[in-house]
């Protein structure tokens, strides 16, 4: 990229990165840690206009301060065998060497080194596990870096704390170079080769790529800077510091610094994007479980409906059978009663009516009332069992949800967790309350009144205050009126030969019609009332879970929108990274990478004959 066009292009990249950061910030709303991540995004985008930031990390006593002093050619940073760097120190350019501490525990050091006009250096506390407060300071500064120089030493190469720290660095997508310090402690070149192999293998595993490795002796470099003549040249070559300076002052030129400067926020954005996508996925899985909960309850309701309808048909059939039994007995009664042999009994209407009530109606009213009461008790009991099943299921689901949430690392959102837990618990409590306060007797009495009212009003109007069974048989009993006094007013007895068969046939036909009409009307009205009660019991369950159901559906739509938006942002970050790195960077073949790693290793192990300059 030409320098004349660089500034214009830089502004385009700046705007593109800020836009992506802003869009990502919008997606963070409602997730745990959003404030911290938003502040991180703000900081890394703000540093785009600042000087290139080199952050030096490593364990204490690895030689971080000594290496900085070697680069500066003067002991500007304090050195020692104890952890001397106890706070973040920022090294900047100034014509005077000054040191002062900021309010936020950051030490600001100024020094008139020319390269500091283009690069700011951050010296950090050690990452050792024994100094947890120092480690936190270091990690807080990593996202702001444009380049990370990781210092390890030959006496303790890649300790466990260093490995853990590198794994965390990898997540930020930062450019990393490795400096292996204190090579002056090694007695044989073979030892250095082994160490470099060890470092290369670990870097590939921990970072996912092979960074450049610079074996140096900061001590020898400082000794060379303080010596003169052939001794200075010899010490400088032994220090192998020239390769590191070549990288710092030549390879890391203006174009490369700008490239890394604009790549740095993308790594941070990708990390936060990944965390947010993970949180969204976690939320999606929770909602999928919640949706299955709602679906399972709906399935229970459908099974409840099918079982109820199947059993109701059988129970209603028992009531209809009682009516049909009266039908059979009624026809037999007409055949036995309306005949010439009983012509004188037929004239006595009271006697005929009594026989009809005894032989046809009998105990039908009591049997119908008992069957209807069994039907009512069954319906009440089934609704109670429905609520009991819903309550048991929700309680199991709530306990599973609590255990699942406890197993999760972090939280997708305190408010989201609170809302879904509260709604699930509210539904469970409501179901539990219904079960505990369910009054079977009161429910049965209310259902009995509703059923009796519906049947007597729609099917047997004018039944008055008698029982349902009595109302039904009273309707059947009206057929007796056609039998009572059937021959009253006959003048000639001989006419009975013609009148009796006709009257019997008419009485049976009218009785059949009344029984069939009663059966159909009774079936229709009881079926309608049953369906009304069934819908009511199912609706009460649905209403109890309605807030929970609405929450799940609403949040699922939000999750889908968030996932789509995050995917768009991720693609935008990838496209911008390709634009900055160039189209060939992402297409590098594994064989080519391995060749470059071999070359990097060769250059690191080889004995470079460099001329010491500037002493």
Automatic annotation (TrEMBL):
Residue ranges of domain G in the record: 55-182
Pfam family membership, one: MMR_HSR1
Q: Transmembrane ranges?
A: 458-477, 483-500
The record, for NCBIfam families, names: small_GTP (TIGR00231)
Q: Which PANTHER family match?
A: SARCALUMENIN, TRANSMEMBRANE GTPASE FZO
What keywords are annotated for this sequence in UniProt?
Answer: GTP-binding, Membrane, Nucleotide-binding, Transmembrane, Transmembrane helix
Is rRNA processing there in the keyword field? no
Question: What InterPro entries does UniProt report for this protein, alphabetically?
Answer: GTP-bd (IPR006073), P-loop_NTPase (IPR027417), Small_GTP-bd (IPR005225), TRAFAC_Dynamin-like_GTPase (IPR051943)
Q: What is this protein called?
A: Dynamin
